[in-house]
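Usage example:
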Amino acid sequence: MQTPFPSDSHPLCTRTTMHNLQQRANAVSAFAISVLFSLLAAVALLSYVMPPPEPTADVAVTELRVRREYLVLTLFSPPVRAGLYSVTGRYGPDYFDYGKKTNEFAFLAFDLDADLTPLFDWNTKQVFVCLVAEYESKTHNHNQVVVWDTIIEDKENAVLEFQGERNTYALIDVSTKWQGLVANFSLRYDVTPHVGVLRSGLAGSSKAMPFPVAEKR
Amino acid sequence: MFEFVEMVFMSNFIGFVRSREPTFNVSGWQAATRIKFPSFNYPNYLPAHGHPAPPTMLAAVADQVKAFRQLNKRQIANQILNFVMIIASALMIWKALSLATNSESPIVVLLRTRHQNDVTLNTARPLDVSKAQILSLFIIPPLTNLQKFNHSGSMEPAFYRGDLLFLNMPTSESIKVGDICVFKIPGRDVPIVHRVVKLHDEYKTGKQFLLTKGDNNQVDDRGLYNQGQMWIHRDHVVGKVRGFLPYIGMVTILMNDYPQLKYVLLGGLGLFVLIHRE
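Running the assembly step on the lines above writes:
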């Protein structure tokens, strides 16, 4: 059926078709969603292309001790063993057995002076900060153990100044021995944005610290 | 999310192309559904008493049904093919993304937090694109039911329920401490999203021994692993979390909580695509 369409001849008629309500709603919602996602993509891209300056931190390990501990399962009659600390539980949350009853745990105290405020820009939701012991052993060429961590949610709390802070997580190797190992303690951060790409980095690290011989009781 | 955006653009594109079809060959279906405004369609025609009023919504629906009846077999087949093509292209993009990121499910939704032995578990679910769930974003405003799910999760305040996480797993890159990983414990279905806190790379085999922990948990994940399992390895890890988009996964969560809704939406969507023709 050929219908003459007079849009060209009529001065008031600028569109060639009319759209019903459903079509309009569809077009509007499709456009709104396109705009929303373009905006989110732009935010993600911008904060990826223009990252905030990297912060620096001074980490100094002031004390590093190693204790050989013997796990006692009965509370009331702990057997005394020569040169061993008898403990009824593992250090901190690390209560699972490494396959042995006698394990060497390292204990440390560290000074921290870090200003992480530059990490907080317009697209920062939270910053996860952790102190990581990094070392090499004969059987394992790369080892990383988190010994302390914190979550910073706003700029006001982003300056970390600690003196003699202790490790909150157990420092234990897979071999459960620290003899002859040298570790490097570094402060690492992981930034979660409101929208976009996660970013991580190294703020600073201590000098290499050799583990001492296990203390005798 | 990529394929979702793609889908939106595709629908725009189809709409765009079709709305600019030459209007001279108006016949059958189109002639029946076109709203006829006298001054618009027939500018030389002066409205007079007794001219039919502009059609109502009901009349529009009736027109659509009438139009659908007028479709011939070839046109119906075309519509079905159209629908299949949208689904197939979404699936193709999804699989391509999977190949590019080297992760079996490159986009996951933070689904539910489960309390187990005083440990909060963050579980993730692969986004199921093949069912075209994402298209239903048009139909449900996803933000209305947010208050309903206000659990304390193990990765809070970084991730909450309904957040969308983008994963990848480059073969050249090893896992580091501080990375947030999605991993599957053998014998269990639901992946977990937690942070790596201990890592030992074995010299001989190059195998990575990983220990994970939720940021908001007091203890590490050894209580969540299988009996006697001390570490997880790279082959348990689905992917590292690289990107983050809040709230968008709520649609998937709604679908998961109310399966009937899924069928209603999918049925409605299928019907819509079949019947609707611009």
